[in-house]
Amino acid sequence: MTRIIMHGCNGKMGQVISKIVEEDNDASIVAGIDISDHIDNPYPVFTDINTLDVEGDVIIDFSTAKAVPSLIDYAKSRKIPVVLCTTGLNDEQINLVNEASKEIAILLSANMSLGVNLILNLVKKAAQTLTSANFDIEIIEKHHNQKIDAPSGTALAIADSINASLNNEYSYTYDRSKERVKRDSKEIGIHAVRGGTIVGEHSIIFAGKDEIVELNHSALSKDIFAVGAVNAAKFLSQKSEGMYDMQNVIEGN
Ligand SMILES: NC(=O)C1=CN([C@@H]2O[C@H](COP(=O)(O)OP(=O)(O)OC[C@H]3O[C@@H](n4cnc5c(N)ncnc54)[C@H](OP(=O)(O)O)[C@@H]3O)[C@@H](O)[C@H]2O)C=CC1
Ligand SMILES: O=C(O)C1=N[C@H](C(=O)O)C[C@H](O)C1
In order of start, what are the domains of the chain with their CATH numbers? Predict the structure, then answer.
């Protein structure tokens, strides 16, 4: 039985995970942490992580970037692995996470779905083949109107995966309204759309002379992220210090 501490338990993802874990015989949520305490949960909820006195095997985090430093401090002090799903972390927060992974197991992933993690691999091959024929690369992501970070963590992870396969020679362009210039061949355009209840859509467009190749992923519910997060928690609870991602969970290593 994996004992989960849910950080951000009263948010949208925290509540989807609470529902999924209720039906899982191999996992349970033993405590939650959230600054807003307006929901009745079947586990104790703490509004300040430093007052948490319940033992757990792993923390799942879906909260907000600002909350990550205190979460990491707590996890280090208790030697608890963290499945870190919050997006929009700045460089300083990412450095903190990388440093902490020398002491505890951390799985950092902007997208817990199987499909997006497959796409992170597929785009490498597509980028290598198509950019050698001068195709341009643009990424469009669409999310609900409650999302605070832009572009999405997933769009950035896809761009990073493409860039790594191209010797990191590409720069990212988020806004074309400021300059009247043609696009550079070595850039990846990244564009964010926000509206309604869109769960999460990502399109990677490779546009060449007279042909377009497009890879798309559509999340039809938040359950796909929750299932991935719970699988990752079971996986990570058995691991020692280090940095992990969903590829490790999918491949079981
Ligand atoms: N990796 C992945 O697959 C996915 C990642 N995400 C990411 O997860 C994050 C959360 O998403 P979502 O659930 O939709 O967002 P929500 O805003 O619905 O939930 C976040 C929760 O965390 C709470 N919170 C804020 N500050 C703290 C704090 N200091 N300590 C503890 N809890 C805090 C919020 O409270 P309050 O509302 O009062 O601020 C809220 O209840 C986002 O960064 C999102 O991009 C989302 C889906 C999939
Ligand atoms: O905020 C969301 O909802 C999501 N955020 C993640 C991101 O920023 O990539 C993943 C998913 O698309 C949903």
Answer: 2-108+222-251 (3.40.50.720), 114-219 (3.30.360.10)
